[in-house]
Amino acid sequence: MPVSVTLSKEEIGSLRDKITAYNLQVVPVKSEYELLRVDDAEVLMILYKSGKLVHDNGHIAKKIVGEVLETQEGYDFILGTDEGGKGEWYGPLVVGSVALKPEEILILRKIGVRDSKTLSRKKIRSLAERIRKLGIINKPIVLMPETYNRVYSRFSSEGKTLNDLMAWAHARALKDLVSVLKYDKAKVVIDLFDEQKMEFRLRGLDRSNLEIIQKTRAESETSVAAASILAKDIFEDRVDELDNRFQIDLRNSKPGDIVSGILPKVAKLHFKNVGK
Hey, which CATH number is domain 77-266, 3.40.50.10310, 2.60.120.1060, 3.10.290.10, 3.30.420.10? Predict the structure, then answer.
């Protein structure tokens, strides 16, 4: 069965060198989206312009990919956080947080961990199960609708915004994660949404051996991608639980379809379509 991994620009250059070194047969690409195609006796590789590499699961292909993928040296752990459910009017808000050792990053990349927005629900479930079976350290924060609504109301009464709530939730998940780790040096990657609010919520965290980076498109980092996959998987599970509990179908419903007495238990009340 073919497997895939997303390569950086540097890794793409290394892949080209390996193809030459292994004297593999390069053939013409078959679509405008392909950058490179290898079709040799024992190796099939397709590199897309997006950086995604699809390859067979044979010994030679796996060996080449293992030689191409770069490791992040100098850190005991690389941490990442990301959320699920923020944009949905129904269900909980989930913030996933993951701590990866450098060798675990390579393992997750090889099994196809990448930005959850590019994955189907079935694939997210499969990858989430594999991440858990590998024993990856993670500390999710789950705010079910009733709790979420209380927290949002409290923040709103203090003149704070959704970004304040998000920064609080990310920081709480991160602090919970850091509290169970032992390290000499670690790095944290957070998807940038409000740098000042995030920095405010991270105050009090010992950063003497902890490097914190806020960046756009942070899902390109394996730790953030893994956190996103776990968060989305938990979100979908909790939505299923709400559906079963109240005998409804939230994914295929509108707020107006839900009995008003149930709505605060399944929906984020500040959403405009819910308020109507």
Answer: 3.30.420.10
